[in-house]
Specification:
Structural class: mainly alpha
Pfam families: 7tm_4 (PF13853)
Strand content: under 5%
Keywords: G-protein coupled receptor, Membrane, Olfaction, Receptor, Sensory transduction, Transducer, Transmembrane, Transmembrane helix
Strand order of the largest sheet: 2-1-3
Radius of gyration: 21 Å
Protein name: Olfactory receptor 1L4
Shape: globular
Membrane topology: Multi-pass membrane protein
Number of helices: 11
Mean pLDDT: 84
GO molecular function: G protein-coupled receptor activity
Largest sheet: 3 strands, mixed
Length: 311
């Protein structure tokens, strides 16, 4: 049988989704629609609360509002198409559509990681250099950190997608995933992907590990500084300002490391789907709860927003 090349712009892929069981499609649709709506509403409320309360116009909340915006965009790149596929018989996505989804998925995911690193730096300066905080974390520098986060992430994503666009896809065009992620798409390629994998792994390590190491370094410095505080109350107060951020970092990076920092030969369809759902859907949904429930300033901001809406 002649092998068909699916790398042209006229051909596409089939997204297998989370489950091929027809009886699970509608329940899954209801679950993920609810999670998506909670994600969008929760993160919009965080953004509105921050922008409506002048007490929250600080570097930490500047980065948090941008993280919330990125989380909305991040889930919107994946979930709406997944919802359509739950109720569709074809579950098709065009070749160009697949590359576009892959591009924005990687760009927004990486921007998330750099914003988390920026928030770690903010906590480092606030705890270790409190008297220099206003000078170091000035509005211009915060904006520059945001622009650098977006630029590096989009350049990385563009490079990855250009590499993917050079591959040929023969015979099977069924992606065993619920969106166009790099690993399951690479599995379909009939081209020699060994050189691409080396380049991708090296470049990915540089781009993704850099913010992760920045977070690790920041928290090591924070821990050393906090341990020098004589009173237990002072230590608790310092650590409490980092609790929400650290929780999000563990959720995000735990699943990302599990999915991406392994050779293609160790790729597992079922396990990776579950881990991917964690950081693409669950973590963005939980972020507003994590930052609001454990943060007195955010609680006050949300209460002020609620009073303003009701008045």
């Amino acid at each position: 049988m002649e092998l068909k090349n699916y790398s042209s712009s006229t051909s596409g892929f089939i997204l297998l989704g989370l489950s091929s069981n027809p009886q699970l499609q509608k329940p899954l649709f209801a679950i993920f629609l609810t999670m998506y709506l909670v994600t969008v509403v929760g993160n919009v409320l965080i953004i509105l609360a921050i922008h409506s309360d002048s007490r929250l116009h600080t570097p930490m909340y500047f980065f948090l509002s941008n993280l919330s915006f990125m989380d909305i965009c991040f889930t919107t790149v994946i979930v709406p198409k997944m919802l359509v596929n739950f109720l569709s018989d074809t579950k098709a996505i065009s070749y160009v559509g697949c590359l576009v989804q892959m591009y924005f998925f990687m760009a927004l995911a990486n921007t998330d990681s750099y914003l988390l690193a920026s928030m770690a730096i903010d906590r480092l300066v606030a705890i270790c250099k409190p008297f220099h905080y206003d000078v170091v974390m000035n509005p211009r520098r915060c904006l520059l950190m945001l622009l650098c986060s977006c630029t590096i992430s989009h350049l990385h994503s563009l490079f990855r997608v250009l590499l993917m666009s050079r591959l040929s896809f023969c015979a099977s065009h069924i992606i065993k995933h619920f969106f166009c992620d790099t690993q399951p798409v690479l599995k379909l390629s009939c081209s020699d992907t060994s050189s691409s994998q080396i380049v991708v792994m090296t470049e990915t390590l540089a781009v993704i590990v850099t913010p992760f190491l920045c977070i690790i370094f920041s928290y090591l410095r924070i821990i050393i500084t906090v341990l020098r505080i004589p009173s237990a109350a002072g230590k608790w107060k310092a650590f409490s300002t980092c609790g929400s951020h650290l929780t999000v970092v563990v959720l995000f990076y735990g699943s990302v490391i599990y999915v991406y920092f392994r050779p293609l030969s160790m790729y597992s369809v079922v396990k990776d789907r579950v881990a991917t759902v964690m950081y693409t859907v669950v973590t963005p949904m939980l972020n507003p709860f994590i930052y609001s429930l454990r943060n007195k300033d955010m609680k006050k901001g949300l209460k002020k927003l609620r009073d303003r809406i009701q008045s």
